[in-house]
Design a protein that fits this description.
This protein is mostly beta strands and 497 residues long. It has 3 helices and 27 strands. Strands 15, 17, 18, 19, 21, 22, 23 and 24 form an 8-stranded mixed sheet that branches. The longest helix is centred in the C-terminal third of the chain and has 11 residues. The protein starts with a strand and ends in an 11-residue tail after the last strand.
Length: 497
């Protein structure tokens, strides 16, 4: 007997509201007695962390597994066959090829089961057993995640199981993986407000070195220059601070002189990188992994910003063409949170500046780093019918169901700390040029959950009809799998045997 799964793949990846269709191909070489053929649509979030050295009270590793998606469909026996043989629990298939179609629809939110089975929690290759956990969160389904071999993984797959009634005969299984990228959450209405990070810097006074006099040349008077400039550097994003996968950054970098000086500010270098922080939890153990993607890195620019007559506090914006034509890599997953894995992002901008007069730049170079916490959206736009239905349900005159809404944020200023943790922030009415440290969030703003989609809407809505960009995750490291598995996936490409 051989079993395979033929999965229809109309897109490079699947998203919410998509229908997953395919066929289970079963080949029997002789007459076989089976009891059922079940097809499952699953999403597993697995983490595995090593216990710190010296802790002898626990196992060497802790494993935590969550079934974020679990749907089962019995494709054999059919309802008609059950009605013909209501008292029969086994069926004999003749030799030959058999096909059984299946169909699933991907919901919006996870449905993490509270208790995993022993077979689910068992890691056969390493003879490890994951303990059950009762910590679960109800959030939108996360994207496919790889890149942390043996440590963390979010995997979507379809599995077919051919059940045989005899206890001494093994069941046949086939598994096929697919990539998943979720629909982005509802965006707030557009506004003209901006979130920003700010830093100030005072250039040091320049001490000129007098030239040596010779017999044929007398020392000339040093060229007149004003006081060293004091500057402010702003990095601004639309409010709330959101960026999108596979799209350029909607970033503005603004320089201002804070004192009256004829000195000219020159842009020497600029580097923009996105830093991702993955929080991995396995029961009582936690670990944070960081990854970074350089968007742009330019040096030796010698670009003047303004001139000697530029007034104080006048905004001098760096040309956005330096990064506006560069899209984020298609391998970056969007921001998400699930039971044992969380991904968040920080945008880091490094600006290198010098000052001087025309043709006479001072040697002092200052590189100022600024960091802003950002939400990375998938770029998969929700269908208009979904947004219209949510708006209808939010109207109390049309429905008693009122989903929670994110309050419309005012401009948010972020400290320019270079630490790895997100800086504290406070709402403000406009940027303040004198403040570099900020207070905790104001308690006057209600702490409401962001808007989310309801799974009850998914049954009546059509799939996403629009362009889909690429989404590529690193290939999982191949590990020798179980010889009982078969099909397209074969069971030998999983991070966890």
């Amino acid at each position: 007997m051989a079993v395979h799964i033929q999965l229809d793949r109309p897109h490079a990846y699947f998203t919410n509201l998509d229908s997953i269709t395919g066929r289970v191909l079963l080949t029997t070489f002789t007459a076989e007695t089976i009891s059922a053929i079940n097809v499952k649509l699953e999403c597993e979030s697995r983490t595995r962390l090593a216990v710190p050295p010296g802790d002898r009270n626990r196992n060497a590793t802790e494993i935590e597994i969550h079934k974020l998606l679990y749907k089962v469909q019995t494709v054999f026996p059919s309802r008609a066959l059950l009605q013909q043989s209501p008292n029969s629990s086994t069926f004999t298939l003749p030799s030959g090829s058999h096909e059984y179609p299946f169909h699933f629809k991907i919901p919006f939110n996870n449905a993490c089961t509270a208790i995993n089975s022993v077979l689910t929690n068992l890691n056969v290759g390493r003879m490890e057993l994951a303990r059950d956990t009762n910590r679960h969160v109800k959030k939108p389904l996360p994207p496919t995640l790889t890149g942390f071999p043996g440590e963390a993984e979010i995997r979507y797959f379809v599995k077919a199981t051919v059940q045989r009634p005899a206890f001494y005969k093994e069941n046949f299984r086939a598994t096929v993986d697919f990539k998943f990228l979720p629909i982005e959450p509802p965006r707030p209405p557009p506004n003209r407000l901006e979130s920003y990070a700010r830093r100030e810097h005072q250039f040091a006074p320049h001490v000129p070195v007098p030239p040596k006099s010779t017999i044929l040349r007398k020392p000339s008077a040093s060229s007149a220059s004003g006081p060293p400039p004091k500057i402010s550097i702003d990095c601004r994003l639309p409010n709330p601070a959101m960026i999108t996968c596979n799209e350029p950054l909607p970033l503005r970098v603004i320089i201002k002189k804070l004192n009256d000086t004829p000195e000219i500010i020159y842009l020497q270098l600029i580097q923009i990188q996105l830093i991702g922080y993955t929080r991995i939890r396995a029961h009582e153990l936690e670990r944070q992994e960081s990854s970074s993607w350089v968007v742009v890195s330019l040096a030796n620019l010698h670009t003047p910003l303004g001139n000697s007559n530029t007034p104080t506090n006048k905004e001098m914006e760096i040309d956005k063409k330096l990064w506006s034509n560069i899209s984020l890599p298609n391998s970056i997953p969007p921001t998400f949170e699930t039971c044992n894995l969380t991904r968040c992002y920080m945008l880091e901008i490094r600006v290198g500046l010098v000052h001087g007069s025309t043709g006479n730049m001072k040697p002092e170079l200052t590189v100022q780093p600024l960091r802003m916490p950002v939400d990375l959206y998938s770029g998969v736009k929700p269908p208009p019918a979904l947004l219209a239905e949510m708006a209808r349900r939010a109207d109390p005159s049309l429905s008693d169901v009122r989903p929670s809404r994110r309050p419309i944020s005012r401009p948010v200023s972020f400290s320019a700390s270079s630490s790895s943790q997100p800086p504290s922030f406070t709402p403000s009415s406009r940027p303040s040029s004198s403040s570099t440290a900020f207070a905790p969030p104001s308690t006057s703003i209600p702490d409401e959950a962001p808007p989310s989609y309801e799974d009850a809407l998914a049954d009546d809505l059509a799939p996403v009809d629009g362009p889909r960009r690429e989404y590529n995750q690193p290939q999982a490291s191949p590990i020798v799998g179980d010889s009982k598995r078969g099909g397209v996936f074969g069971g030998n490409e999983r991070l966890f045997p």
